[in-house]
Amino acid sequence: MSEEKKGTDLVEAPKSSLLAKFGAKYSVDARKVYETLCATAFSAAKTEEQVIALLVVADQYGLNPFTKEIFAFPGQRGEVVPVVGIDGWNRIAQQHDQFDGVELRYSDVMKKPSDKAKECPEWVEAVVYRKDREHPVVIREFLDECFRDTGPWESHTKRMLRHKALIQGYRTAFGFHGIYDQDEAERFIDVDSTIVEPPSPGRQTRRGNETIERAFSTPATQEPEKETEVEEKHTTEAPEPSDGLGI
Fold first, then answer.
1. What is the pLDDT of residue 208?
2. Angle at CA of residue 147, ends 166 and 165, nearest 5°
3. Is 130 helix (H, G, I), strand (E, B) or coil?
4. 21-26: long-range contacts (C-beta < 8 A, 24 or more apart)?
5. What pTM was computed for the model?
6. What is the DSSP annotation of 47-94?
7. Where a domain ends, among 129, 145, 180?
8. Does 188 lie in the same domain as 174?
9. What number of other Cβ atoms are within 10 A of residue 236's Cβ?
10. 191 plus 126 within the same structural domain
């Protein structure tokens, strides 16, 4: 049973909650899990529902949000996109039961997509092997389709194309869905608002010593109490964009 406290004290989350599960996994109090993620990897989330949705995705794929294997990327209409860095993609692929290795193949033709960019193979192929399939999954990504006039693409052209091939290879081979790399999020955010919809009024995320909403501490079988006052909205700042390079 949840223990309700007054003032700025927290309502204790049930042991079965997702926050408690993450807290137990990383030996961190459930309250601190929420507060830390709201201030770091999930700072773009505007509501508790968005934070929970991101945690569900992190839990599904076994990703660590504290090391930015997954983080929230802000959309243009208030939605947030679960973005996974290259380390996260490598983790979920290599932890898959059927993963049996990956190799990269490169075009012999070199191209320079812009004056500022580096020379790069015209295409890169990711060859992903599964234990349960006779033939590997082969995905080819082309430079002219992937290149963008951004800092990471200009300074590390070959690495960025390699990452694109790896991610698409993993996604196709293992059916990963609902997660994106940062380049995709930046490219498609204005046309793909799939993930976590814009926040509705109320139920905003909390910061500092303020309380976590009752929704986090009320068991699923119990109706949460109705709020008697309109909560004050809190704005959040998006995390500083990564350079998108990874390792």
1. 35
2. 10
3. strand
4. 21/59, 22/55, 22/58, 22/59, 26/64, 26/66
5. 0.70
6. BHHHHHHHHHHHHHHT--GGGTSEEEEE-SSS-EEEEE-HHHHHHHHH
7. 180
8. no
9. 20
10. no
Token pair recorded at residue 114: 């812009």
Q: Which two tokens stand for residue 102?
A: 């990956």
Share of residues in the chain with pLDDT > 70 (%): 69
Q: Which residues contact 28 (CB under 8 A, 6 or more apart)?
A: 22, 36
Residue 66 CA to residue 44 CA, distance in Å, equals: 15
Q: Do 2 and 66 fall within a single domain?
A: yes
| Confidence check: pLDDT of 8 > 90 | no
77 shares its domain with 115: no
Cα 196–Cα 98–Cα 173 angle in degrees, nearest 5: 55
151-192: pLDDT as tens digits: 999 999 999 999 999 999 999 999 999 999 999 988 865 444
| CA torsion through residues 144, 146, 149, 150, sign | negative
Domain assignment present for residue 247? The answer is no
Q: Which amino acid is at 65?
A: P
Residue pointed to by tokens 């949840």:
2
Within-domain flag for 202: yes
What pairs with residue 180 in β-bridges?
83
- Rounded to whole angstroms, how far apart are CA atoms 34 and 26? 13
The residue segments making up the domain with residue 236 are 1-85+181-242
140-144 own/partner pairs: CB under 8 Å, 24+ apart: 140/165, 141/165, 141/168, 143/111, 143/113, 144/111, 144/113
58 and 142 belong to one structural domain: no
Question: What is the number of structural domains in the chain?
Answer: 2
Considering the domain architecture, whether residues 204 and 124 belong to the same structural domain is answered as: no
Instruction: Judge if 115 and 158 occupy the same domain.
Output: yes
